[in-house]
Amino acid sequence: MTDLFNLLGAYLHDVFVIKFDGWVILGFVAQAMFTMRFVVQWIASERARKSVIPVAFWFFSIGGGILLLIYALYRRDPVFIAGQAFGLIVYFRNMYFIILHGRQTAA
Fold first, then answer.
1. I need a labelling partner for 43 at 20 to 30 A (CA). Which of 3, 8, 9, 68 fits?
2. Torsion on CA atoms 44, 46, 49, 50, rounded to nearest 10
3. Contact 45/51 with Cβ under 8 angstroms?
């Protein structure tokens, strides 16, 4: 059992101490931004007392998605790259609809 704890400790030290650099900081910032979209959506839905997706959700999605894609490209992770790249298409498309709908409302 002691060996298991030593291996776990060595693994965590390697991941969170030795490999900690500017790229890891970027990854954490990106993940925090990406997570904020859920916080914003939750607060907006609680205030409206129904499910709401505010525009800020899409801004956080795009910002976090771009930063996570940069991080994934640096890490050379094909699964992470494909997931973030596809997500960005969806986020930008939703922003397009929001802009289009705003123009139609103004007209």
1. 68
2. 60
3. yes
Q: Which residue has the tokens 């103004």?
A: 106
The CA-based angle 87-12-4, given to 5 degrees, is 125
Which pTM value belongs to this model?
0.78
Q: What is the pLDDT of residues 43-81, one digit of tens each?
A: 999 999 999 899 999 999 999 999 999 999 999 999 999
- Helix then strand count (H, E) for the chain reads 4, 0
Q: Is 38 helix (H, G, I), strand (E, B) or coil?
A: helix
Residues whose CB is less than 8 angstroms from the CB of residue 93 and which lie 6 or more positions away in sequence, other chains included: none
The two tokens of residue 23 are: 């790229």
For residue 102, the model assigns a pLDDT of: 75
Average pLDDT, the chain: 90
Helical H segments across 19-77, by residue range: 22-48, 55-75
- Residue 48 has which token pair? 């409206």
Q: What is the pLDDT of residues 9-18, one digit of tens each?
A: 999 999 889 9
